[in-house]
Amino acid sequence: MFYKPQDGHGLPHNPFNAIVTPRPIGWISTRGSDGRDNLAPYSFFNAVAYVPPQVMFASTGAKDDRGDTKDSVANIRDSGVFCVNIVEFAMRDAMNRTSGPWEKDSDEFELADLEKAQCDTIDCARVMAAPANLECKLTQIVQLPGEANFAVFGEVTGVHMRDDCLKDGKFDVLSFTPLARLGYRDYTTVTETFSLLRPGE
């Protein structure tokens, strides 16, 4: 099968995000100018550079009470900071709860019964029990083609790792079972790893 996105795929459901899988989930926490905290998951998310460490996530929709975007991007525009909280399998229901189209004055930490902690390098809350948190300073927001598509880039200014996730000096993903997004309503987990040596190593 071949299709051009501009012409449509003719299938019951869009296959695009089922093809680009698995995708890590950036559970983005932000703080509004009114001091309210927000938490929402984004599966268009990844690390993009080592030095300095940088990450990105993309928001692809809008809410009536936020104009051209969602709460996360609106808050980051105001504050210039955000935190990426890593999602483990045990937090799947809480993460899903925070994905709802809640009003901008809602606190998703409270809705999902999640304990907050204050970030160290930025004025933002983080998910205290998450396996890891990346505190980020905004570097740029890029408006992408299409309605309400924004890519947010940030430099990591602080890193939290849960002590039980450190094994023999390494951050051990098998100790917490990372959650990843597939297509449609599907998710998966990382339950095994293997290593490959690069040519010349």
Main beta sheet: strand number and arrangement? Answer: 7 strands, antiparallel
How helical, in percent, are the residues?
A: 10-25%
CATH topology: Pnp Oxidase, Chain A
Number of helices: 4
As a percent range, the share of strand residues is 35-45%
Shape: globular
Structure, described:
The protein has 4 helices and 14 strands. It has a 7-stranded antiparallel beta sheet, with helices on one face. A 3-stranded antiparallel beta sheet has the order 1-13-14, with no helix packed on it. Strand 7 and strand 8 form a beta hairpin. The chain has helices spanning 16-19, 71-79, 92-97, 108-111; strands at 23-24, 26-31, 37-42, 45-49, 54-59, 81-86, 116-118, 125-127, 132-143, 150-161, 166-167, 170-171, 179-181, 187-189. The protein is mostly beta strands. The longest helix has 9 residues, at 71-79. The protein has one domain: Pnp Oxidase, Chain A, CATH 2.30.110.10.
Topology diagram in text:
Layout: H1 16-19, E1 23-24, E2 26-31, E3 37-42, E4 45-49, E5 54-59, H2 71-79, E6 81-86, H3 92-97, H4 108-111, E7 116-118, E8 125-127, E9 132-143, E10 150-161, E11 166-167, E12 170-171, E13 179-181, E14 187-189
Antiparallel strand pairs: 1-13, 2-3, 2-6, 4-5, 5-10, 6-9, 7-8, 9-10, 11-12, 13-14
Describe what is shown at a glance.
With 201 residues, the protein is mainly beta.
Question: Top keywords for this entry?
Answer:
Flavin reductase family protein, seven-stranded antiparallel sheet, oxidoreductase activity, acting on the CH-NH group of donors, NAD or NADP as acceptor, Flavin_Rdtase-like_dom, Split_barrel_FMN-bd, 35% strand, three-stranded antiparallel sheet, 201 residues, single chain
